[in-house]
């Protein structure tokens, strides 16, 4: 068959069968949309849940390997390492309050909200204010808002109590204040005892290795509890999503297969006529191949759009934020569309070509 | 008449009908599996989240500042297992009582000051007031801590945190001097936290050595909890009677902590907020995700069924034309299509329900290492939604069928 005639045939057929082809393309589109949506959500869920799990706290602790302390510059050095989401320094000292010695923790108060500690009262808003652990409440009552004198060696410093914190840990018996205030209490300056690092779970090993290389004098420890629990939970959820995706793909390919099969079945007469008129198997094959290609491409394209939209709706509903669609999603959509329409078109066409044109044309 | 037509129609289109039933079955199975999953994902994920550590800490109640320094206060060992008698006892998955002391450790020419902590690792204890035992200990609240070697059973053995062992330059099998007592290192504990600088030994032995029989410093508890709601954050002291009752009888981390506090003499039980607060959020998100997936699957499978139905109709245009020519009225045609859809829906729904038992069991075992509880009531939901999907799928075909003009169709020009 000449190219021109082939094209003529093809276009006429496509125009005449608008409805049926549209139907087939729709079913491909639906399948592609579902696959794209599931893949989109699966790839996004890790990042979204990871962000929630961040509240479980630091998953890496960096402390001086041979005692002593760091200078505060180390925090910005750690933040610049790839895979590190966040880093914040803490400084520990002791001071005596009303004649009793208590632990003093200096930390970056702007990170407080993210730490998930419970706050009664308000955060220190300016220099010279502090929080106290909930265990100190009965002892300091009714001093909330009043000045307390902290004594460290010969140093004395007045601090105003702005609230209490409850964490469920040793911090509940300590005084919490900004790094600057803690340094002022103890007379130190710009030193850090420990850096709490939050490494994104996907880049965990590499980032920890980088930290060790960059900071040879520091002991870099992964907080086993957080790191391994996080990894285990995320991989479970991912497995769950993958299983569901697999079943959904199966379900939607059945619908595509049945639609394509019906589409071809109706045209056994057409195929018979083509054969009777002397078309070769290759020509008929090329004809249906081109048709499937068109249906698959159209279904894949629109399926991608709908799939991404569905993924965004789900992400918005479940996590309250949009996901960034993976760059490979359009490729996956198009491939799925083409593959589905070609594979599900192949078998019925093969059957139709095998049958005897005379029998079909007689209408049996 | 209709029965014969139906029988004929199913017999003549075995393949198409089977395909439709399969596609409905798969859609229903998926929806039913996701529903089964959504009932239990809270519990399953809650259990997974326990790996992040204890969510309740019990400490001696401290009055004034005096408790912070000098005078040590303790909880009583005998109260520990009373935790398994509270209203929410079945939600308590882990209990780890600890006694803290300070020790001066010598290893050859090296020495260190460290916390020496008495605790259980994995200890079977009889349940109070019930038959059976409960396993308590560090392992039950912090399963991800890694212990090399073994936990000592008597006063002669000790476990060192990994940093402490490195500082002292000792390994498993070496002997150390704790004050004037000799102890053998039986295990190394690696946690990545402050425990790496501490030493551990058997709880009862440490109590005896320090003349602190029956005394413990703190207890960590891992409990399955209901995610906190807005109202649960209210101070129980200012709740109305109704609110207080609802709060007390719901498994919020705060109400379980309150009940734990009540069984420990002179104690304060606090949620470990970092753990407790995050858990609720993560669970809510996962549940929302599953429900949304359910919706998407339902929509997708109903559209799929609808296209299959329409395709099946297109094959039978002549048949319907003949029926009409022979005098079938609108009602008859609708009845035929609807009863076909009904049969397909029932068959698909039933098969889907059976399939969902397999699928959800598989998902449960693969993902959470334990099966999901199957609910018989899901059968009705499965049948209902399958029939609904099938009938919905026939709306377009029926409209199409009613428009068929027998003359045109039978002449073969459509």
Please provide a written account of the structure.
The complex is a heterodimer of chains A (364) and B (414). Chain A has 364 residues and is an alpha+beta fold. Chain A has 2 domains: 3-51 and 232-361, no CATH class; 59-222, no CATH class. Chain A is 56% helix and 20% strand. Chain A has a 6-stranded mixed barrel. A two-stranded antiparallel sheet of chain A has the order 2-10. In chain A, a hairpin with a 2-residue loop joins strand 7 (147-152) and strand 8 (155-166). In chain A, helix 2 (18-53) packs antiparallel against helix 8, helix 2 (18-53) packs antiparallel against helix 11 (329-354) and helix 8 (224-265) runs parallel beside helix 11 (329-354). By secondary structure, chain B is an alpha+beta fold. Chain B folds into 2 domains: 2-46 and 281-411, no CATH class; 54-271, no CATH class. Helices cover 50% and strands 20% of the residues of chain B. In chain B, the strands form 3 sheets. Chain B has a 6-stranded mixed beta barrel with strand order 3-4-11-8-10-9. Chain B has a two-stranded antiparallel sheet with strand order 2-12. In chain B, helix 2 (14-49) runs antiparallel to helix 8 (273-315). The longest helix of chain B is centred in the last third of the chain and has 43 residues, at 273-315. The two termini of chain B are 27 Å apart.
Layout: helices, strands, pairs:
The complex is a heterodimer of chains A (364) and B (414).
Chain A (H helix, E strand, L loop, with lengths): L2 H14 L1 H36 L6 E5 L5 E2 L1 H7 L4 E14 L2 E8 L4 H4 L2 E4 L7 E5 L3 H4 L6 E6 L2 E12 L7 E5 H8 L4 E2 L1 E6 L4 H11 L3 E5 L1 H42 L2 H9 L4 H39 L9 H26 L2 H5 L3
Parallel strand pairs in A: 4-9, 6-8
Antiparallel strand pairs in A: 1-11, 1-12, 2-10, 3-4, 3-7, 3-11, 5-8, 6-9, 7-8
Helix pairs in contact in A: 2-8, 2-10, 2-11, 8-11, 10-11
Chain B lengths: L1 H11 L1 H36 L6 E5 L14 E2 L15 E16 L2 E10 L3 E4 L6 E4 L1 H4 L4 E4 L7 E5 H7 L6 E4 L2 E10 L8 E4 H7 L5 E2 L1 E6 L17 H8 L4 H11 L3 E5 L1 H43 L1 H9 L4 H39 L9 H26 L2 H6 L3
Parallel strand pairs in B: 4-11, 8-10
Antiparallel strand pairs in B: 1-13, 1-14, 2-12, 3-4, 3-9, 3-13, 5-6, 7-10, 8-11, 9-10
Helix pairs in contact in B: 1-10, 2-8, 2-10, 2-11, 8-11, 10-11
């Amino acid at each position: 068959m000449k190219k021109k005639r082939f094209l003529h045939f093809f276009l006429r057929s496509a125009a005449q069968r608008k409805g049926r082809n549209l139907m087939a393309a729709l079913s491909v589109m639906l399948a592609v949309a579902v696959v794209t949506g599931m893949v989109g959500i699966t790839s996004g869920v890790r990042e979204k849940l990871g962000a929630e799990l961040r509240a479980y706290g630091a998953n890496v602790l960096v402390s001086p390997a041979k005692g002593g302390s760091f200078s505060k510059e180390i925090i910005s050095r750690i933040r610049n390492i790839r895979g590190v989401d966040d880093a914040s320094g803490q400084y520990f000292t002791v001071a005596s309050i009303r004649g009793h010695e208590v632990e003093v923790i200096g930390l970056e108060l702007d990170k407080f909200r993210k730490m998930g500690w419970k706050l009664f009262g308000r955060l220190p808003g300016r220099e010279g204010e502090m929080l106290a652990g909930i265990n100190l409440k009965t002892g300091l009552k009714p001093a909330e808002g009043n000045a307390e004198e902290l004594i460290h060696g010969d140093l004395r410093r007045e601090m105003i109590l702005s609230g209490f914190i409850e964490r469920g840990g040793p911090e509940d018996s300590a005084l919490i204040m900004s790094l600057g205030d803690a340094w002022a209490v103890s007379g130190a300056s710009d030193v850090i005892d420990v850096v709490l690092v939050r490494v994104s779970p996907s880049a965990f090993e590499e980032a920890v290795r980088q930290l060790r290389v960059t900071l040879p004098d520091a002991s870099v420890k992964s907080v086993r509890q957080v790191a391994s629990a996080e990894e285990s939970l995320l991989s479970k959820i991912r497995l769950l999503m993958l299983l569901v995706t697999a079943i959904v793909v199966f379900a939607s390919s059945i619908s595509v297969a049945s639609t394509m099969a019906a589409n071809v079945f109706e045209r056994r007469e057409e195929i018979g006529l083509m054969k009777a008129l002397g078309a070769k198997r290759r020509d008929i094959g090329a004809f249906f191949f081109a048709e499937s290609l068109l249906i698959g491409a159209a279904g894949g394209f629109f399926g991608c759009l709908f799939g991404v939209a569905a993924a965004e709706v789900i992400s918005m509903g479940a996590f309250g934020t949009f996901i960034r669609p993976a760059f490979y999603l359009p490729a996956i959509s198009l491939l799925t569309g083409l593959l589905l329409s070609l594979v599900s078109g192949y078998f019925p066409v093969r059957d139709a070509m095998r049958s005897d044109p005379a029998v079909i044309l007689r209408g049996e | 008449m209709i029965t014969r037509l139906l029988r004929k129609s199913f017999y003549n289109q075995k393949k198409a009908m089977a395909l439709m039933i399969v596609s409905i079955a798969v859609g229903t199975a998926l929806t039913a599996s996701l529903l089964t999953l959504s009932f239990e994902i809270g519990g399953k994920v809650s259990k997974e989240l326990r790996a992040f550590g204890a969510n309740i800490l019990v400490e001696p109640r401290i009055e004034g500042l005096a408790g912070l320094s000098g005078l040590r206060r303790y909880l009583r060992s005998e109260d520990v297992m009373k935790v398994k008698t509270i209203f929410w006892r079945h939600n308590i998955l882990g209990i780890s009582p600890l006694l803290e002391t300070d020790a001066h450790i010598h290893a050859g020419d090296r020495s260190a000051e460290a916390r020496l902590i008495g605790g259980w690792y994995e200890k079977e204890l009889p349940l109070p007031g019930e038959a059976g035992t409960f396993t308590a200990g560090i392992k039950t609240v912090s399963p991800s801590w890694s212990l090399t070697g073994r936990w000592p059973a008597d006063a002669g053995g000790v476990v060192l945190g990994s940093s402490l062992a490195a500082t002292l330059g000792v390994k498993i099998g070496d002997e150390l001097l704790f004050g004037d007592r000799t102890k053998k290192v039986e295990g190394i504990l690696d946690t990545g936290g402050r425990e790496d600088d501490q030493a551990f030994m058997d709880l009862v032995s440490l109590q005896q050595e320090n003349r602190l029989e029956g005394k413990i410093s703190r207890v960590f508890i891992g409990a399955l909890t209901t995610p906190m709601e807005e109202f649960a954050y209210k101070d129980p002291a200012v709740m109305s009677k109704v609110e207080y009752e609802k709060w007390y009888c719901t498994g919020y981390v705060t109400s379980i902590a309150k009940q734990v506090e009540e069984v420990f003499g002179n104690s304060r039980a606090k949620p470990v907020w970092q753990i407790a607060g995050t858990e609720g959020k993560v669970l809510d998100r996962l549940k929302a995700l599953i429900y949304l997936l359910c919706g998407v699957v339902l929509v997708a499978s109903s559209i799929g069924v609808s296209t299959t139905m329409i395709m099946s109709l297109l094959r039978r245009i002549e048949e319907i034309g003949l029926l009409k020519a022979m005098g079938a009225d609108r009602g008859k045609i609708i009845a035929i299509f609807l009863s076909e859809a009904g049969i397909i829906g029932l068959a698909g729904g039933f098969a889907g329900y059976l399939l969902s038992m397999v699928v959800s069991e598989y998902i449960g075992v693969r993902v959470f290492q334990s099966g999901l509880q199957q609910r018989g009531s899901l059968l009705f939901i499965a049948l209902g939604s399958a029939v609904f999907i099938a009938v919905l799928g026939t709306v377009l075909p029926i409209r199409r069928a009613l428009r068929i003009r027998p003359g045109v169709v039978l002449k073969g020009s459509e």
